[in-house]
Here is the input.
Amino acid sequence: MAETPSNNEYWSANIRLVTICMVVWAVVSFGFGILLRPVLAGISVGGTDLGFWFAQQGSILVFLAIIFFYAFRMNALDREHGVDEE
Amino acid sequence: MDQFTLNWIFIGGSFLIYIGIAVWARAGSTSEFYAAGRGIHPVTNGMATAADWMSAASFISMAGLIAFTGYDNSSFLMGWTGGYVLLALLLAPYLRKFGKFTVPEFIGDRFYSPTARLVAVICLIVCSVTYVIGQMTGVGVAFGRFLEVDNTTGLLIGACVVFAYAVFGGMKGVTYTQVAQYCVLIIAYTIPAIFISLQLTGNPIPALGLFSEHTASAQPLLERLDGLVQELGFAEYTGHHGSTLNMVLFTLSLMIGTAGLPHVIIRFFTVPRVADARWSAGWALVFIALLYLTAPAVGAMARLNLIDTIYPNGTTEAPLAYEDRPQWMQTWETTGLLTFEDANDDGLIQWYNAGSADFAATAEERGWEGSELIVNRDILVLANPEIANLPGWVIALVAAGGLAAALSTAAGLLLAISSSVSHDLIKGQLNPNISEKGELMSARVAMAIAIVVAVILGLNPPGFAAQTVALAFGLAAASIFPVLMMGIFSKRVNNKGAVAGMLAGLVVTLVYIFLHKGWLFIPGTNSFTDADPLLGPIKSTSFGAIGAMINFGVAYVVSNATDEPPQEIQELIESIRVPRGAGAAAADH
Here is the structure.
């Protein structure tokens, strides 16, 4: 397929979406779960702190939300740009 | 009915179901053998991916590792789920649009190079075989324990079962078998966890029970556990004790490795449409999360139950007498995975952290002369229902679940190996004119050879199952994932860059691992240990992330120093970036 302005717009919208999702992905796991845990130490959750919750459960729930959000947004983007499967 | 008979009924019954499904769904054509005719619904596919993905390492090993280490082993939880985000966002929809059967096929076409395809086949075989060895070891241990046969016999029985349905079923058989296996393994994992969570916290959902109040002490469960482990000189359960850098790199290695494992990627070739590939990754993670959200609760609660069993009157009072030990300890003692040695000859089981300098004074005061109980971390999940005094059928169910986890992953990996050998190596390079029947036959022969190799190496494994599995992840992270991602997101990376990147990532990671684990895993040939690694705190299990960075870096530099990819490749990349026109893939090309 030749490169068309519509494709470029579609692709850059996709890259923007992927970037946002990847930032959230990194912040909840490497951020809240590991590196920023001391910062979150004040917030207690069931006998421990919020960082522990993010490391053991929270990040997994956010990962799920990211994938479904991405799938939903991308399938909509496909239709908007007329590149969905007929 | 005794426990042994119950185990046989549950394990035998579940196997009959798997084999029955494999026979019922026998593959007829090559397309069905590899990719089930692309007729698999995203939810079904997600469930099969989950079974494929969750191996003996997730089911048997992970909760035990978390139980004995606590927070520091959260890497497993984040790493083995976070990889699905990478898969869903960066790989799955594009590989489905590309519409071929195997990972090396994509690499060969995108990098317009038979050499790149060959190198990809090598990377794939190295990762998959390493992974299968770990699984076969796990299968052997589990069969040995529950059928009360020795490890070797257990391994051979397991190999025959894997061979039967993987060879005769192909992908379609494996897909539906794996759906059945997922059901068995998730029920087996959650039922004992629900019972234990109810006993300890009154909350029927283990994931919530972990953060609830411990009924017996009226304290939050984790606070109670932190207190108990510290009273025995162990490190605080929820505390961070290891190297932060190593934890970040280890988590990252597991994530990238997940997205680079060929048997997981191959799953996304089997959905009908590109949009379904995106949903499918989400559904896979839903089914995986059911186990992964339960696992940290299983770990913490098992640790708590274990301490309460050994110190029935509290950690400051006398521990359990060896004479009075429960039945489950006796059963596991016979396997040699749980051992007691009465260091101070008082007939009591002292279990504490003998390595803690702070606790040494207390231990001496109490007349303790060393920790007397050694509990192998890998038995914790299997022994968990016995520790909590659950009924015999729950114990048998857990046995069937553990075997389902190990066998489903082994079968998926064998399929990935066989398709890359028959499709990429034989049809793609050696004999392009091979008939469909011949290709199918060579796939089955390749599978049989792979099983034999895995059994031979599994009889004398390079390490514990979990160590072998971690190695496979590091290798997948360093070799396969970076070129797949660059192949989609960069138009500049060319054939030379991809080949150089894959080789650099694979070789550097292999060397780093061999330096720590021994060359070809021969004991005593290692120059370093993971306790004192070559590069600061970076253990060999965490090196995959560095290997991946090397792969990216080398591919980028080499590509920019050489010619850019030809026009038709630029167009190919354009076409895989949009979903439109993603019909069923052609078997011939």
